[in-house]
């Protein structure tokens, strides 16, 4: 009887140590980059914006483009004729969020759609696709923000710009 009581008490203690199940969706995988590098230069930022405008024009879109340094502060901005005025600030916010949090804003959008509502309590985060970090030698040197199309269109253009920049030989 004593042995049974000890077993039951031990089983209860082990069960009490188990964490409660979480109802939050699984967090996104951490980005491969863990640090920031020297900020992107203005001349480079202008070239990235020009490349983005070519991609946007080819897709029949009118978009705004913001390039920020790792702190999220604006380095360069450009917008195509006819883009909505709301896209101006949105592009800057997307770039800032992506640089400061080291992740594409489409990841935050997916987390929000998955029920992670706590994102809404942080006014430093915009959870709409269109922001992507710019990585060099494993370090974030800035980010691009694109706005003017749908969230998916903006995210695709931003990802293409960042991928081309990340792959560019130094």
Short descriptors:
four-stranded antiparallel beta sheet; Beta-Lactamase; disordered N terminus; 170 residues; alpha+beta; 4 strands
Q: Care to describe what's here?
A:
By secondary structure, the chain is of the alpha+beta class. The protein has one domain: Haem-degrading domain (Beta-Lactamase, 2-Layer Sandwich). It is built from five helices and four strands. The termini are far apart. The model is unreliable at about 1-30 (pLDDT under 50).
Number of strands: 4
Lateral strand order in the biggest sheet: 2-1-4-3
Low-confidence blocks of residues: 1-31
Measured as a percent range, the helix fraction is 40-55%
What's the story with the biggest beta sheet? 4 strands, antiparallel
Strand content: 15-25%
How large, in whole angstroms, is the Cα Rg? Answer: 21 Å
CATH topology: Beta-Lactamase
CATH class: Alpha Beta
Based on the structure given, which CATH architecture is correct?
2-Layer Sandwich
């Amino acid at each position: 009887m004593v042995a049974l009581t000890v077993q039951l008490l031990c089983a209860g203690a082990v069960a009490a140590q188990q964490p409660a199940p979480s109802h939050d969706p699984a967090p996104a995988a951490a980005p491969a980059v863990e640090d920031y590098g020297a900020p992107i230069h203005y001349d480079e930022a202008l070239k990235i914006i020009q490349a983005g405008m070519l991609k946007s024009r080819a897709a029949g879109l009118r978009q705004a483009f913001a390039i920020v340094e790792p702190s999220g502060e604006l380095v360069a901005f450009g917008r195509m004729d006819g883009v909505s005025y709301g896209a101006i600030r949105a592009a800057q916010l997307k770039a800032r969020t992506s640089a400061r949090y080291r992740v594409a804003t489409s990841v935050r959008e997916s987390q929000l759609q998955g029920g992670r509502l706590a994102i809404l309590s942080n006014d430093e985060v915009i959870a709409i696709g269109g922001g992507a970090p710019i990585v060099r030698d494993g370090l974030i040197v800035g980010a691009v923000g694109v706005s003017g199309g749908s969230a998916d269109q903006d995210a695709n253009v931003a990802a293409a710009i960042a991928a081309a920049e990340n792959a560019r030989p130094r």
